[in-house]
Amino acid sequence: MPTAHKPKSSQAFMHQEVRKLKISARNQVKGKVTQIKKGVITAQVKIRIEAPATLTAVITKEAVQEMNIKRGDDVLAVIKATSIMVSK
Question: Which CATH architecture fits 25-87?
């Protein structure tokens, strides 16, 4: 009897699809997550970059959970206009 596979949630699928996309933002900085402060809707993710400096990205709490962002993770800060997005 074949094994049934549990379908991925639509949010997890969307996250995988978005990671495959090429984006126009060229200001990308690799760094390490040093702190996460979760609020009701958003979370502040502090990222230490090599300069040394720290960037703070305010992203949704859901994004932190979906990407499983934890302190000490290596991430990519994507800077576009006045926002800092997080990619993992």
Answer: Beta Barrel (2.40)
Cβ neighbours of 35 (radius 10 Å):
12
Give the β-pairing of 42-49 and 53-60.
antiparallel
Instruction: Give the pair of three-digit tokens for residue 3.
Output: 């094994």
What does the pLDDT look like over 24-80, one tens digit per residue? 666 778 889 999 999 999 999 999 887 778 888 999 999 999 999 999 999 988 877
Please give the distance of CA 88 from its chain centroid, rounded to a whole number.
5
User: Edge-to-edge strand order for the sheet containing 83-87?
Assistant: 53-60, 42-49, 27-38, 74-80, 83-87
Q: What residues does 43 pair with on adjacent strands? A: 38, 59
pLDDT in tens, 53-64: 888 899 999 999
